[in-house]
Amino acid sequence: MKRKKMLRGPDFFTIVELMPERSYLGELELMLLLAVIHLGEEAYGVPIARELEKYRKADVAVSSVYAALERLQAKGLITSMLGDPTPERGGKAKRFFRITKEGRRQVQEMRRVLTHLWQKMPDMKMGAAEES
Q1: What predicted TM-score, i.e. pTM, was given to this entire model?
Q2: Where is the Transcription regulator PadR N-terminal domain (predicted)?
């Protein structure tokens, strides 16, 4: 549903239609959700960070992964549960992540949007002059 808002300028009023609010995933959020899906039962901090490193070709701090996962959980896109502690003395329990229905829906929506945008792109030749 479109909303309308009246804006007041110096000597006039303008009515504008506001686009419906949509919350698209950011690059890191999308990559994290895809990593959680791909890793399945083994989706916890370190393997998720390694999965991102593999595709980004850059180091990824596990702490930044956990911070982003907490944001995704707060948005209702993933859930988490504690596993058993590791066998060594004082071992910590791993926090495993799973994608929710809403998380899956948003991943599918991003795929649809990006596929549509890529289909509209002209062929990009490697080494061709780029606009600056």
Answers
A1: 0.72
A2: 33-109
- The conformational region for residue 127 under phi > 0 = left, psi -120 to 50 = alpha, else beta, is left
How do the pLDDT tens digits run along the chain, 132 residues long?
Answer: 455 555 555 555 555 555 555 667 889 999 999 999 999 999 999 999 999 999 888 899 999 999 999 999 999 999 999 998 888 877 788 999 999 999 999 999 999 998 988 887 777 655 555 554
Would you say how long the chain is, in residues?
132
Q: Are strands 78-85 and 3-8 parallel, antiparallel or unpaired?
A: unpaired
Here the tokens at position 120 are: 């509209």
How far, in Å, CA of 30 to CA of 106, rounded?
9
d(CA 14, CA 54): 50
